[in-house]
Amino acid sequence: MQQEQKVTASSLHGRMWAFLIIMSADVICSSLIMFCDMDSRQVLSKASVNKHNIKLDKILVFVFSGICAALYIALVFWYFFLIWKTFPFKFGLLGTLMRKVPILIAMPFFIVLFFAEKILRIVSYLLFLTFASTF
Amino acid sequence: MIAKNQYKLNAFNVLTVLNFSEIGKNFIFQIFFWTKAVALVLMYAYGIKSAIQVSHPTYYKPQKWLQNLD
Q1: Does the model's pTM come out above 0.90?
Q2: pLDDT of residue A25
Q3: B11 SS3 class
Q4: Which of A88, A132, B6, B41 could be joined to A93 by an S-S link, Cβ 3.0–4.6 Å?
Q5: A49, B7 Cβ separation under 8 angstroms
Q6: Distance from C-alpha of A103 to C-alpha of A110, rounded to nearest angstrom
């Protein structure tokens, strides 16, 4: 019994560290995407004010989006490893567990929202490429 | 010159990038973007709460869960 409690206490430490690392990396990547100018009409202009590297911006949007998607998949595994040793999960009381931990229901909706936002952004970029190629 | 300096100031401003970009003008994108942003904060808050909640020893013992069953 004591050993079971020790495992629980030590695993909390590891879980929280893993969660904080995933959360920090996701916040950094999600924030950096917002600073990448991918499809503004200003990137077409040849003005001398456009000194920042636009090609790098476009690549970074895809790189940061990929990292974010990988982090959300890691978060799904994190939730699974959070609950897999609990008594209700072992014995099939998933309804009771989900009432106690509602985040398990919200997670799939969040992932759908994330991919919807990223798909809209990438489709807009591809349409913009078509528009830009007419010049 | 003022416009040039203003652009330099705002070159890496999030709202500027959103306002000038084509996707920023899309109303559906704005709905998805802000819903996702709020959901992300809530999800992280509930993630920390869930980790602390599930780590309680009662989640690993049958007594709490079996007493509600008929």
Answers
A1: no
A2: 94
A3: coil
A4: A88
A5: yes
A6: 10
What is the pLDDT at residue A48?
45
Backbone torsions φ then ψ of B21, nearest 5 degrees: -75, 160
Q: Which of A1, A37, A90 to mutate to test the interface with B (most CBs of B within 10 A)?
A: A37
Query: Do the beta carbons of residue B32 and residue A113 sit within 8 Å?
Result: yes
Cβ pair B60:A4 closer than 8 A: yes
The pLDDT assigned to A2 comes to: 53
- pLDDT, tens digit (0-9, with 9 covering 90-100), for A85-109: 888 888 888 888 888 888 878 888 8
> Rounded to a whole number, what is the distance in Å from the CA of A35 to chain B's nearest CA?
5
Tell me whether residues A124 and B42 touch, CB distance under 8 A.
no
- Closest listed residue to residue A65, CA positions, set B50, B47, B23, B46: B23
* Distances in whole angstroms, Cα of residue A119 to Cα of each of A21, A116, A124: 26, 5, 8
pLDDT for residue A64 is more than 80: yes
- Concatenated DSSP letters of A37-97: --SBGGGG---TT--S-HHHHHHHHHHHHHHHHHHHHHHHHHHHHHHTTSHHHHTT-HHHH
Judged by average pLDDT, the poorest of A5-14, A48-57, A71-80 is: A48-57
Q: What distance in Å separates the CA atoms of residue A105 and residue A113, rounded to the nearest whole number?
A: 14
ipTM above 0.90, yes or no: no
Q: What tokens appear for B26 in the block?
A: 């899309």
Which is higher by pLDDT, B8 or B63? B63
